[in-house]
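User: These chains co-purify. Model them together.
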Amino acid sequence: MKNIIFNLGPESDVIISSRIRLARNLRDFPFPLKMNPKQSEEVLESIKEVLVNNYQDMNFINVNELSEVELFSMVEMHLISPEFAMSKKPKGLILSDTDIISIMVNEEDHIRIQALASGFQLENVWKMCLNIDNSLEEKLDIAFSDTFGYLTSCPTNVGTGMRVSTMLHLPALVMSGYINKILEVCNKLGIAVRGLYGENSKAHGNMFQISNQVTLGLDEYEIVNNVKNIVKHIIDQERILRNELYKQNPIIIEDKLSRSYGIFTNAKILTSEEAFKLISDVRLGLEMGIIKDIDMYKINEIMLFMQSANLQRLSGKKLSLQEINIKRAEIVQKIIKNK
Amino acid sequence: MKNIIFNLGPESDVIISSRIRLARNLRDFPFPLKMNPKQSEEVLESIKEVLVNNYQDMNFINVNELSEVELFSMVEMHLISPEFAMSKKPKGLILSDTDIISIMVNEEDHIRIQALASGFQLENVWKMCLNIDNSLEEKLDIAFSDTFGYLTSCPTNVGTGMRVSTMLHLPALVMSGYINKILEVCNKLGIAVRGLYGENSKAHGNMFQISNQVTLGLDEYEIVNNVKNIVKHIIDQERILRNELYKQNPIIIEDKLSRSYGIFTNAKILTSEEAFKLISDVRLGLEMGIIKDIDMYKINEIMLFMQSANLQRLSGKKLSLQEINIKRAEIVQKIIKNK
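Assistant: Joint model of the two components:
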């Protein structure tokens, strides 16, 4: 499996992944909401031409032909948005061989460029996005205003069209309750904190998405730097608290995390919520050197495959909720034991 | 380790062990409560002489020289009673090489003969007790009344002086609530149901000691048969209920028992109560074929060594309650992983 989230990047004890997306639109077409099917097709063709011709490692995926389960598997892999999966309009996805870069065509904007890498790699993902963006701007007329910057369907994206986000694992901040202070500060600084699947999603397994709210009035460099500095600060806080919690009562922490590992690797029924909670403990145990029987690569693999749509894709059929919970426990044990 | 309880006997899916003890006294001495130290020594010497000289595989243990931790380790192995461990009078223990037969001298009675075997083996342990009893009666003048039978310190033992007991693991009867019906019926039939360590002890881990209450008015054969028949009935009930519980919802049972196995093998702190609860689930999982990573021999070994006095004996020092709970979790993992 090539999905990039399996690998470990810099600061992987706290940062799971870094992601940047750029929203772009073609000047000569209405925004997707207003397009007719013919215009949608034209937009799709022109972007496909530029990217698939320009890059040997970029592939066009005809998402209109995919089943619901396949589409939601891609949502779980963070390759497409849930809205994109559900949209009935002509749409397309261009994906790099490594799954690092994905470009949704005809989502909320004509073009959504995304680069996703493991660990703390904001500069790298930014470079990748810029590279794609430059290729598009060379060949296509992108909607841009000297006053407002890049124009987008939703005013919250106008300006840079940029969303910089990182996925953080913050168990010690949650355990100690300091997470509320962090949320407060982030809010004041124009930084959004969300759950694993973006807006309105809950923070399962102590995992938080931290991203910029403001896209206008700052340049790209400033946006990346703002997120980077706040995330660095959160990393420090999380690390200090982990050490303190452990120092205060090592055996209690060891007992708690080891029990979670025992349940995680033996249960026959696992709800998504419990699985994320247990994964949080297992990650922390691994990072602290308490759990040694498994590596982080497997945990990342489990985190991806244990999700509902991926479980159904692997089973080759729609499953009931109970069947999904049983299949989830099976996959966890399979990945841990058989590889 | 030679302790007999590690092995598996007949009907070991439900019956952990079978035990018979006979209470006997020498006619020419007062009962232990009334003896002076000189008399205690004389009783001790005469019994020791008969048994240690008669049997090559019987060894005299000078329990007066043992530490409290060593004595209570023997209580946990069911070789001696707690009262015997605590008594300050001259006392002695005669133990067979295999730990199957143990004879306490100067407990509540001058002689307490016990035979303990794994599984459902009441006839066998009875034969062993009788064999020792015959040797003693040949050489010594045993207190016996034609009206009352064998005379004992406590009137509840007068007659046969016989206590027949079996240790049963009854998780399905407990889960289904039917255990209360069993307790009621046993009570009416003069059968006592107790926890793991006899009178006043709680039923940890769904383990129950089932024994005769009446020693007078029935002969030995009838007492053994009464207990045997009731136990057979309980075995049947337990087996039927296990099957029914499993048939009703196999995955729920598998999940419950597998989780217990996961916690049992990974926890870093285990109280005695939790450990027995988890062992009950692990035993049931093993017997049902749900848990396959461990054998019953190891479970029996753990059940013995995880108890407080044995843990302290293995550590070579007195431990605090928290230290015992940590040591218990260590021993569980050591026995499971290293052997």
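DSSP finds twelve helices and ten strands in chain B.
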